[in-house]
Amino acid sequence: MSTQDIPEENLPSEQVHAPAGTVTKPVADPFADPGLPPHEHRIQDIDERAAKRSERVVAFLFTVSMLATVGFIASYVGIPVDKNIYVFPIGHVSALNFALGLTLGVALFCIGAGAVHWARTLMSDVEMADERHAIEAEPEVRAKVLADFQQGAEESALGRRKLIRNTMFGALALVPLSGVVLLRDLGPLPGTKLRKTAWSAGKLLINQNTMQPLRPEDVQVGSLTFAMPEGMKEEDHDFQTEIAKAALMIVRLRPENIKDKRELDWSADGIVAFSKICTHVGCPISLYEQQTHHVLCPCHQSTFDLSDGGRVIFGPAGHALPQLRIKVNDKGYLEAMGDFAEPVGPAYWERG
């Protein structure tokens, strides 16, 4: 755009200048600091009855938190793990999980809500502005911080509002008990539970497929058979717990192929019985290599040699498969001569 297109009155030569010596009014700075608005007192600042009401509200919230924590502990101890309830609109849920989540949530919420209500209604709400300072504070600044802290402590009325103080300390003291109670799952020690299974002297070996007692002729060379102790039934309430320890796999080997002398002594006509539970993380073993007499765990490929005492030849398993000593009784059935000589499954701290 050229100067010819600009109106003459807008050209510099035609602009009106203020007379010399005239003082022009400065334009207001749009970015000036407006400062803090006037402080408005809350009703609790001027009415002690309102302050007392707020104090009771805060104390009530802290008390509810304490009761909820007690409810958490009572639910954890008293509600069975397998109990379910119907909760609309969720549906059927675990009663224990629902109670634990509800009580712990209420306990934590009430502590937070009580602290917020306390700060908004009873603590000092006077706004204070302070200039930024260097990272390394001067002695005067540190003294001022300590003085401000002491002033804040006094204005919080923690010493004067004893009801709030006591209930807050009670709530904060009880909430950590929720975590302490959860440590209950780490104990008590299992005692002999991991060392004993459903096997004992005289119990017949029952074929898990036919549910009939096993005879030596039922086990062919090169075959793999799964067995369980006599007297166990799938409809028993503790069947899954017991079979997880007592599950047995039976293989028939030629006596000349058995390398371990104790394994040969504990066998019956070349039939050897080993725990089916992998000694790594407890997976059930089900893969058998007929030519090598090896069994393979499908979870992490731990491999055991059933012709050499069930020892580990590959994989992360820590020790050999426990062997069950068996014999043929007077009626021609295979029966156990006792329990496993060592705990089945993964190694644990009491293993010798």
UniProtKB/TrEMBL annotation:
Pfam family, one: QcrA_N
Keyword line: 2Fe-2S, Cell membrane, Disulfide bond, Electron transport, Iron, Iron-sulfur, Membrane, Metal-binding, Oxidoreductase, Respiratory chain, Transmembrane, Transmembrane helix, Transport
UniProt KW Transport keyword: yes
Origin: domain of life: Bacteria
Taxonomic lineage: Bacteria, Bacillati, Actinomycetota, Actinomycetes, Kitasatosporales
Keyword hit for Transmembrane helix: yes
Segments forming domain Rieske: 264-335
Function recorded in the entry: Iron-sulfur subunit of the cytochrome bc1 complex, an essential component of the respiratory electron transport chain required for ATP synthesis. The bc1 complex catalyzes the oxidation of menaquinol and the reduction of cytochrome c in the respiratory chain. The bc1 complex operates through a Q-cycle mechanism that couples electron transfer to generation of the proton gradient that drives ATP synthesis.
TM stretches of this protein: 57-78, 98-119, 163-183
Stated name of the protein: Cytochrome bc1 complex Rieske iron-sulfur subunit
Cofactor: [2Fe-2S] cluster
